[in-house]
Amino acid sequence: MDEPDIHILSVGTALPGAPVDNATLADRFNMPSVWELWIDSFIGTRTRHFALDLETGTIRYSLADLGETAAAKALQGAGLRAADVDVMVLGTASPDMLMPATVNLIADRLGIDDVPTFQLQSGCSGAVQALDVAHKMLLSGRYRNALVLGAENCAKHIDLSTDAASLPTSEQVNGVLFGDGAGAVVLSTEPRPGTAVLRHVFLRLVGLGRAPGQTVEWFGRGDRDSDRQPISEDYKAIEQSVPSMAAETLEEMLEALDWKETDIDYLLPPQLSGTMTEKITERLDVPSAQEISCVVDIGNTGNALPFFQLERALPRMTTGDRTVGIAIESSKWIKAGFALEVC
Length: 343
What we know:
Keywords: Acyltransferase, Cytoplasm, Transferase. It comes from Streptomyces axinellae. InterPro entries: ACP_syn_III_C (IPR013747), ACP_syn_III_N (IPR013751), Thiolase-like (IPR016039). This is 3-oxoacyl-ACP synthase III family protein. By secondary structure, this protein is of the alpha/beta class. It folds into two domains: about 5-190, Peroxisomal Thiolase, Chain A, domain 1 (3-Layer(aba) Sandwich), CATH 3.40.47.10; about 195-340, Peroxisomal Thiolase, Chain A, domain 1 (3-Layer(aba) Sandwich). It is about 35% helix and about 20% strand. The protein has a ten-stranded mixed beta sheet with strand order 5-4-6-7-1-8-14-13-11-12, with helices on both faces. A hairpin with a 4-residue loop joins strand 13 and strand 14 (about 335-340). Helix 3 crosses helix 4 (about 100-110). The two termini are about 20 Å apart.
């Protein structure tokens, strides 16, 4: 029996609050004007959205809030009800708590029950990992519709009382690099006119013996006063490794699909930052493809970003168009990607 095609019926996204520009960040954390210039030139991201109020420190949106909004939009776009969802998967690096899993809180809010649910904790490859799990489950023939989410709420790690100027650069960079947001897609074995088919999902851990490029600590009551740095990023290692890893991912995906670079109509490159995305896209060197990027305007929303890219790409795709998306996870180095085609 032939495997069914897996179609993307719809996509939904959510961003918390108004965009926060670099000048606002510099002013809020009493940083010198050169800091704003550093963000503009070194990071290359103009604005991002935070789930907390920068004035009061109040968390205005939880990960469940953002995930619920994005998922509800995706279900509405697909014309489906909660009862039509057969499996649900969330990829995130920043769940609301260790337990219960945020995916189950979102399911409860949406009225989804009596289905398999999965929460995958991972960096920027988590969205692709979630797609992979859902894709394989739908290919089994036991399920019809899958709701797949990627979401981040990193702002809860921001301590507004901290003297930002005294922090190491490896921690400062996280405060300007990342933003909060959520995305969701509905996958289905039931075809609809003009929908994109998920042709391939690629995942590979390549971190054996390599130091993490990013770490995020968990603190509980017993170690909340630890002097460990809560978040750190080796931006130089990421800058050196990610472009080549993205190029390797593209090469391996094209080989698996028997596609040529000239077959790609839309390219969804990794969205680390505005500056890094430019470097990565140059290394990928696919001049025939239209680049779909949004990190400059919304910041690095981690596992939500591929859904924001899809939200921009899918309406543009017509019969015969092919799209490749790539995500690189730099905490322990994972290459990931997916390919779409409109038949």
